[in-house]
Amino acid sequence: MSFLSRKTRIRHKSRITTENKMKTIYFDNNATTKVADEVFEEIKPYFCELYGNPSSMHTFGGQVGIKIRESREKVATLLGCDPSEIIFTGCGTESDNTAIKGTLSAYPNKTKVITSRVEHPAVLQVCRDLENKGYTVVEIGVDKKGRLDLTELAKQIDDNTAILTIMYANNETGVIFPIDKIAELATGKGVVFHTDAVQAVGKIPMNLSKSNIDLLSISGHKLHAPKGIGVLYIKKGTRLSPYMVGGHQEAGKRAGTENVPGIIGLGRACELATKKIKEENEKVKYLRDKLENEILKRCPDSMLNGDKDNRLPNTSNISFEFIEGEAILLMLDKYGICASSGSACTSGSLEPSHVLRAMGVPFTAAHGSIRFSLSRYNTEEEVDYTIEKMPEIVNRLRELSPFVAR
Ligand code: PLP
User: Fold this and answer.
1) What is the pLDDT of residues 115-161, one digit of tens each?
2) Does 299 participate in catalysis according to the annotation?
3) Domain end marker among 272, 300, 321
4) Does residue 4 fall inside a structural domain?
5) How many structural domains compose the chain?
6) CA 348 remoteness from chain centre
7) Sheet holding 369-373, edge to edge
8) For ligand 1, is residue 93 a contact (CB within 6 Å)?
9) Are residues 307 and 247 in the same domain?
């Protein structure tokens, strides 16, 4: 139960609304990102001027088709693959659903799916639904640092396994899995390998032409493109039944009139990421490390969740003992700082995140976890301001906490 009463929380919220004129400090980039100015400029004409349907025979629609082709090439360049291996979807969730369900339809005699316990619900929920329908689903566990149990994974792959679906990097802790090694393992045993790379693309350089990954999911709004656009990479030769059927779009692999501004925006966002992936991620990592190190130093009884050395450069997940993540978020919000918590408020009680639970993070720490996720748009000034406010927030909440011995 939250120790801030519902009334107090509402009071906090209304105060936040009136104080909202302050500048927002956005450290919630794993939830969604700002659309890059360059992306916004590029997509503007495709709403009211160049609104043709790319499938139309006339030139007005055809010129849009050309832009879609260019975008496909830009996405392929970032991923290091052939443009024909890219299909546009509606979001990361759709890409994940297509990969898993499309593989199972293509291999009707195989009924086993292997995944991890720390996947995003876009994969985990699909797998649990499949389990209810009679499929065998195995969820591989992780250790204290969020690292996957590869020995167990290898043991589980058998002749009945249709697909192995393991995320590239975790959205809550940023922990990166050894995806190329896992893909090799799957391919060696004739199993399709899918990875949810929604948090990894744009942060980790990739060359899919040299990897054994068969299917890979992307979401536009995690890399400064608009919401409502995703990609599924399908390696040439991979058997996959379409999930969305209807029209002939996307070479018959994903029906539905294309989200033209979304596709063009994602192409531009991938082009920007290709150009700046190294320098931008170095800057983001410097800011993330400064924020994290100072908070850990200045706030007693705080600890990092996840493998410190093998993480996305932008993500930091910190637990603060004896206080609740939700209360920290509300106080951060008061200062205009946006972050997210590892707890989800369900039916009046706070449930610690499934990722932290799988890692065995103690109850008192899992409840007080906060995720800071940065982007190229964050500044050192924002980091310094947050470093200054964080100990004040933690100390105030600990004064109220019934879990702190006094
Ligand atoms: N997979 C991961 C790892 C994510 O973090 C998210 C979104 O947070 C998704 C999938 C879902 O992507 P979308 O919001 O585009 O459906």
Assistant:
1) 999 999 999 999 999 999 999 999 999 999 999 999 999 999 999 99
2) no
3) 272
4) no
5) 2
6) 26
7) 302-304, 315-320, 369-373, 340-341
8) yes
9) no
